[in-house]
Design brief:
74% helix, homodimer, mainly alpha, 10 helices, DNA-binding
DNA sequence: GGAATGACAGATAACAATAATTGTCATTCA
DNA sequence: TGAATGACAATTATTGTTATCTGTCATTCC
């Protein structure tokens, strides 16, 4: 019924487009199938449910975000500065998506609200990255010793205002960046050896 | 039509009871009037709108919270410990209300979501208390110098996980208190002179 | 034979008709 | 005379109905 063979990747792209156009509330599997020119039964051959479709779209985006976040850790910069860059890169990626692609970002927020595994996996990734740079900072003598796991959790908890999608509606504040930097500075100061 | 004269205070109490029983979605001004045994017109003599009623209920509760918070500042304790107690007292007050009186706390959350002046006034109060103890801490040499306004904002932003009603659904986590203490310790460490 | 289809039952959403609530105010009551 | 009432219009919620969607699966088509 179509030229190209139907594969998971193009279904994800079509779903992304449908979510962008209709939003997470109105988007249907039938819309996705219509956009692809196939029956909705064919979509269900590749994805077990509507929820799995949405999760695949958000996972693909979060993979990009995580790449950007991980990229800040490749340089030979000192751990405190690396932690700052890690956090601000994550904030910037989410702020940009929330502003430029609000419907897709809304889908992310919906998944987070319903405790999707995609979102907990993302949190686990960020926690791990933060934990790793804290360990390096402790080893290098930049950060005071402590339980890295608990410290990483505290860093994520303390910055939720700037990365948790429940706060997306407040991300148009003019002083947002200044406030984010103030919190990050406070945290870095708190981690440092004295 | 009733023994006692109708006054604002008893209307607020009746509204509180109706909100507790029906929740913020289902509670109506007619319910309040029925509970008081008066017509709803009489309620409107004392309060201009349904929104004003809900706000009065929440303001009365927040007044109590603010008293508790302010009470932590009366002792002759050093500023860092006072800031810790201030924050943990505020957290505890909200955690308790969310657990013991979920419908009323839900009303607070609803007001916060719709940017009610009651909530911004509460935020302003807490910000001011935090700013004051930071100033004292700087003067006493406990805290490093800095812009008190921005620092207070950073402290509130960094602890939103533990006091913002949008997070109430997560306040049953077993490690909540430990995580709150970890964040507060990190913040206090960040504020301290080095 | 493996991919695609569309008919199907159960669940969900959209809609219009109806009922209840909000807020006002002229009137009543004590 | 000031507080309380209840009729009222405008708005908002609820109900019952209809249409659409989700997910399955026997059948069809390369």
């Amino acid at each position: 019924m179509r030229g190209e063979p139907l594969d998971a990747e193009s279904i994800v792209s079509a779903t992304e487009e449908v979510l962008r156009r209709h939003g997470p509330e109105k988007a249907t599997v039938l819309d996705v199938a219509r956009l692809l020119g196939v029956s909705h039964g064919s979509v269900y051959r590749h994805f077990p449910s509507k929820a799995a479709l949405r999760e695949a779209v958000i996972r693909r985006w979060l993979d990009q975000v995580e790449k950007l976040v991980a990229a800040t850790q490749e340089t030979g910069t000192a751990p405190p500065e690396r932690l700052r860059r890690l956090l601000l890169a994550m904030f910037a990626a989410k702020w940009a998506k929330a502003g430029e692609d609000p419907e897709l970002f809304g889908t992310f927020g919906a998944l987070a609200a319903e405790h999707s595994t995609v979102c907990s996996a993302h949190t686990a990734f960020v926690l791990d990255q933060v934990r790793a740079v804290i360990v390096e900072g402790v080893d290098a003598g930049d950060f005071a010793a402590g339980e890295p796991e608990a410290l990483a959790r505290a860093v994520i908890d303390a910055t939720c205002h700037f990365h948790d999608p429940v706060y997306a509606v407040k991300w148009n504040a003019p002083d947002l960046e200044a406030r984010a930097e103030a919190v990050v500075s406070l945290i870095l100061s708190g981690l440092r050896t004295r």
